[in-house]
Amino acid sequence: MSDARLSVFKTYKLYVGGKFPRSESGRVYEVTDSKGKWLANAPLSSRKDARDAVVAARKAFGGWSGATAYNRGQVLYRVAEMLEGRRDQFVREVADAEGLSKSKAAAVVDATIDRWVWYAGWTDKIAQVVGGGNPVAGPFFNLSSPEPTGVVAVLAPQESSFLGLVSVLAPVIATGNTAVVVASENAPLPALSLAEVLATSDVPGGVVNVLSGRTAEIAAPLAAHQDVNAIDLAGADEVLAKELEIAAADNLKRVLRPQPVDYTQTPGTDRMTAFLETKTVWHPTGSLGASGSSY
Amino acid sequence: MPSSALTAAHPLKDVAASDSALRRFLHGLPGVDAVGLEGRAASLGTRSIKTTAKAYAIDLAISMVDLTTLEGADTPGKVRALGAKAVKPDPTDRTTPSTAAVCVYPDMVSVAKEAVAGSGVKVASVATAFPAGRAALDVKLADVRDAVAAGADEIDMVIDRGAFLSGRYLKVYDEITAVKEACGTSARLKVIFETGELSTYDNIRRASWLGMLAGADFIKTSTGKVAVNATPANTLLMLEAVRDFRAQTGIQVGVKPAGGIRTSKDAIKFLVLVNETAGEDWLDSHWFRFGASSLLNDLLMQRQKLATGRYSGPDYVTVD
Question: Which of B129, B133, B120 is nearest to B63 (CA)?
């Protein structure tokens, strides 16, 4: 029996502020595959983990939103490169999590990587689409530009543990927001592994923070948190979404309500514009002389 | 109230009679068990303070803050804003207690005095060539008299670390007594040891006794201008010193950790140290202070969380 090797189990951990802590509460819960077979223990986050994640996201916001759009695009493309290198691992995790065959899981992972690249391309183009110069009746140059909302809490979709997750996370950070992600409750492992990819691909710590656990438990303090600027309720059921929207009203958070989405389809720009604020500046041009416009 | 000076008959009265007597006394103090001290400080830091006890601790901590601004870039406007914040730390919640004091450079004392007028908030001023303390005694005393004349209620002096570390204890002692005299009866004297520069726990214990013997009303860890500032261990050591000093002389001396305390959690750990070491008598802003600036915002955010059940954020407190 001496050649039998002991298997090395992976300890899945949270991703907060660029580090991989255990839950502050010390709790874990069992994650099973679609047939009920045990896969791993994942951290069961508490509201204090949510609070710490928001602090980390706020701290990272200045640097990430201030980075040039081109630079953000490069960083996100780097994430896609890293995902490609870990393709086999994600295929296995997605197959376990969602009960898919190897080939179907591989298709999902490919679509996910392509989704990430798609959003990476949008970072330096979204401003041209939703911003621009406005015609005004006066001697002003009037310019609108989109700016990131701030810290966005993202409840990842419950069913689509990887493609769905990336489809809601990538648009949030592509535009310069920072995110606190609550992973799918029953299938958090692809999200926790994605954190390892983010940690090794030039994404500054705190830009994305990943929490696993009971969605309702973690989402409540996030929705009520005064320092969270927006919340994406994609992973909340109808009852929970209503509760969270009420809690979110207190500091006028932007709320993206859950809606049926086919994540395999190419998305529009909606998820990006949902977390952008339009800033409009009026710049005087001086008097318009007899010859007409001075610019 | 304990008397604030040793009576002539007290056995400790003569320890500063000469340099050698003072050295004999300070070096005769028991050595510090560094591992035990740090272990004790760490274990007291694990106490869980929740709900009503936490609310009490947060309000107590707010009332103990010496709200500090000691920057080269201080302006009268900034000091006035700080004064307003000290009087009403959270304008959205009038039940929030005022802080104990504002702490400024001597030239800002009159501005600060005006800003907190009629509120009970004290004005503390650093003096004696803060933070290095590298000046002639005359200059230091002029610095102190200037601050006292401008109306400072408390003077935070720094000791001459160079003299202390080279063993000239009597020089340090004489300097403290001279500054104490310059404070007169109107200002309380806080003596800053700059524990981060004293190298050993034994030195911190000696400095504490030296300061108390020389008439300090408060002993204070640090200036906040060096790498290592207040730590639970060095504050615990100073709390033991004031406890033992009162037991021997009947004189109560206050303690002020300063620098590096930024979160409510840290502040509450210090309050646990006070309660468990010096005792309840020190759990009052007259005897214990936090030298801090950013700590107050965190305390206010925690207070708002307890009041509303929602986590607060930096948008709801002042930027300073």
Answer: B120
Contact predicate A285/A295, CB 8 Å: yes
- Which residue range forms the structural domain that includes residue B97? 15-308
Calculate Rg over the CA atoms of chain B.
Answer: 19
Interface size between A and B, measured as CB pairs under 8 A? 27
Alpha helices in chain B (DSSP H): 19-27, 34-44, 51-63, 76-87, 109-115, 137-149, 161-165, 169-183, 201-213, 232-249, 264-277, 294-308
ipTM of model: 0.84
CB-CB under 8 Å, B309 with A54: no
Q: Which residue of B has its CA nearest to A50?
A: B311
All structural domains of chain A with their residue ranges: 28-284
Domain count, chain B: 1
Structure tokens given for A5? 């090797």
* B1 in a structural domain: no
Per-residue confidence in pLDDT tens, chain B, 320 aa: 344 566 666 778 889 899 999 999 999 999 999 999 999 999 999 999 999 999 999 999 999 999 999 999 999 999 999 999 999 999 999 999 999 999 999 999 999 999 999 999 999 999 999 999 999 999 999 999 999 999 999 999 999 999 999 999 999 999 999 999 999 999 999 999 999 999 999 999 999 999 999 999 999 999 999 999 999 999 999 999 999 999 999 999 999 999 999 999 999 999 999 999 999 999 999 999 999 999 999 999 999 999 999 999 999 999 87
From chain B, pick out residues whose CB is under 8 angstroms from the CB of A225: 310-311, 313
Measured between CA atoms, how close is B309 to chain A, in angstroms? 8
Beta strand pairing status for B254-256 and B290-292? unpaired
Residue B132 covered by a domain: yes
Does B319 contact A at CB distance below 8 Å? no
CATH number at residue B81: 3.20.20.70
Q: Which residues make beta-bridge pairs with B150? A: none
Find out if CATH 3.20.20.150 is the number for domain A28-284.
no
B182-214: b or e for each residue (b if 16 or more CB lie within 10 Å)? Answer: bbeeebbbbbbbbbbbbeebbbbbbbbbbbbbb
Burial of A8: CB neighbours in 10 Å, binned 0-12, 13-18, 19+: exposed
User: Which residues touch B315 (CB under 8 Å, ≥6 apart)?
Assistant: A226, A227
Tokens for A82?
A: 């890293």
